[in-house]
Amino acid sequence: MNITAIIILISAVAVAAVVALLVVIQRNAAERQRIVKEYEDAEDELQKRLTELTGKNAALESTLKAREEYESRLREEQAKALEEQRCLQEKALAVQRDIQEKAMAEQKEAQEKALNMQREQHERDLEKMKDAFKALSADNSSEFKRQSAESISELLKPMQEKFAEFGKAVQESRKEAVEQSAQLKEHIHNVMERSQAVGDEARNLANALTGYSKVQGDFGEMLLTDVLKNAGLVEGVHFFTQSVMTDESGHEIKSESGRTMIPDVMVLYPDDTTVIIDSKVSLKSFNEYVNAEKAEDRVRFAKAHVESVRKHVDELKTKDYASYIPEGRRKVNYNLMFIPIEGAFRLMLEEDPMLWQAAKDNNVLIVSQMTLVIVLNMIQMAWKQADQEKNIAEVYKTAEELMSQLNGWMESYVTIGTMLGKAQSAYETSTRKLTESNQSVVKKIQKLEKLGLSPKKSQAKIKPGTRKTGPESIIPPELNATTSENTE
To answer: CA-to-CA distance for 144 and 421, rounded, in angstroms?
Structure first.
């Protein structure tokens, strides 16, 4: 009995061990499946990250290519500007040379012409002198001297006149040369003035980009105002520049430090929602980046440009104009920071893509000219829609007034028709009372008229036994006709 119990116990233990072993095997299989699934998930995640990195790499390559194209375009434009300046200088020098050569050629031609005329006249005079000498050689010496003096005087007179003409021609030629020289000097002076003006404009633009902060600020505000106007917004209606922020009572709003709040631009929505835009132009580092030739210089200037933008973001975050708009007014919680140069905006995004998001988290929205135009177009469309809604409301109001007036007129018109109908009915009733039946008033008047009776105004006298044929009947023809119809 004990052996049987032991055998049963051993069998039970064996069965339990087998069951436990099966459970362990199942658990190991589940664990292996979990590990395989985690491995597959990790592989999918790695593939996804690899795809994202490949896309980012392609985007970076595209950005790098765009930057290289932009740099190449800038270099081409600079080379083109230098070439145009060189061509302008060469043209000015060529014009100067042409004018000088033309003046010298004209002067030389005039002198040669005068000399030829003088030579020809001199030859003719010599021939005349020879002929005169031959004619006078047979005369006596006194007569010869007298005639010779007269002949010489006569011969020298044309020559003197020619010399005078030659001197006059030389003087005129000199005068023309002086005038042409003055014109040349004036032309050169004008060219120099134009070159100076171009240089001044170039220096002004350079100062706006790299120089004085006041010039930079004015330059940025001018560009911002042009963008607003080109978007169809009207200054003083849709936006205000350098306007002091005020509360509901019209008092100036001060910052915590006591500074008057004067944003560059406040743009209004039709519902008076206010959008603050501040122009930030500090492009010294960007200009140096564009003009840098060495790669290490470009890297250094690019970082300096990003730091300049970051500094402006911190300044605008500290001012936080939007937070000072009174609670009763609607507002956009972001302060828009406008960078007018598209290339400077792109360089900031390329060098530090997270700066834009960091600025946004601090209620500063960095916008370029392209992105700002999109925002302004939305505002302008809102104004158009508001104007349309206002016009529609005015049309509805006018239509309601017109309908109200028309309704009153129609009520009066119906009342008039009703009254006219009642008058017509009363008229017909009265007519019937006068004309119908043999005992009506008209019948009795007709009978009296047949007996010769007339109204007092006719003053007719009735003789006994006679009938008056006098005045016409006082009964209107209409009543007579009605009476006749009734009689019939």
So the answer is: 145
Summarised one tens digit per residue, pLDDT across range 86-131 is: 676 566 566 656 666 776 777 677 667 766 676 676 566 556 655 6
Please state whether beta strands 331-339 and 239-241 pair in parallel, antiparallel, or not at all (unpaired): unpaired
The pTM of this model reads 0.42
Give the contacts of 261 (CB within 8 A, at least 6 positions apart): 244, 245, 252, 253, 254, 255, 319, 321, 324
Please report the pLDDT score of residue 96 as a whole number: 58
Q: How far is CA 213 from CA 25, 209, 263, 283, 341, in A?
A: 78, 9, 16, 10, 16
**Nearest residue to 243 (alpha-carbon basis) of 318, 315, 325:** 325
The encoded tokens of residue 306 equal 């990003």
Structural tokens at position 434: 């006068």
Residue type, 353: P
Q: Assign 235 to helix, strand or coil.
A: strand
End-to-end CA, the chain: 153
Q: Could you give the CA distance from residue 408 to residue 402 in angstroms, rounded to a whole number?
A: 10
Furthest C-alpha separation in the chain = 205
Here the tokens at position 443 are: 């019948």
The answer to whether residues 285 and 308 touch, using CB atoms and an 8 Å cutoff, is yes
142, two tokens: 């006194």
Q: Which of 216, 194, 230 is nearest to 264 (CA)?
A: 216
Q: What local confidence, expressed as pLDDT, does residue 195 receive?
A: 39
Name the residue type at position 134: K
Q: Find, among 192, 216, 195, the residue nearest to 204 by Cα.
A: 216
Judging by DSSP bridges, how do beta strands 265-268 and 239-241 pair with one another?
antiparallel
Burial-class residue 212 by CB neighbours within 10 Å (0-12, 13-18, 19+): exposed
Q: What is the pLDDT of residues 142-164, one digit of tens each?
A: 554 565 556 545 544 554 555 55
For residue 468, the model assigns a pLDDT of 46
Strand partners, 277: 265, 336
Q: What span, in angstroms and rounded, lies between the C-alpha atoms of 342 and 290?
A: 13
Q: What is the DSSP string of 83-112?
A: HHHHHHHHHHHHHHHHHHHHHHHHHHHHHH
Angle CA(54)–CA(57)–CA(58) in degrees, nearest 5? 90
Three-class SS string for 248-317? CCCCECECCCCCECCCCEEEECCCCCEEEEEECCCCHHHHHHHHCCCHHHHHHHHHHHHHHHHHHHHHHH
- Label residue 395 by pLDDT band (50, 70, 90): confident
Contact 313, 359 (CB under 8 A): yes
Q: Are 453 and 468 in contact (CB under 8 A)?
A: yes
DSSP assigned state of 470: -
Instruction: Provide the β-strand partners of residue 276.
Output: 266, 335
| Separation between Cα atoms, residue 432 and residue 422, nearest integer Å | 15
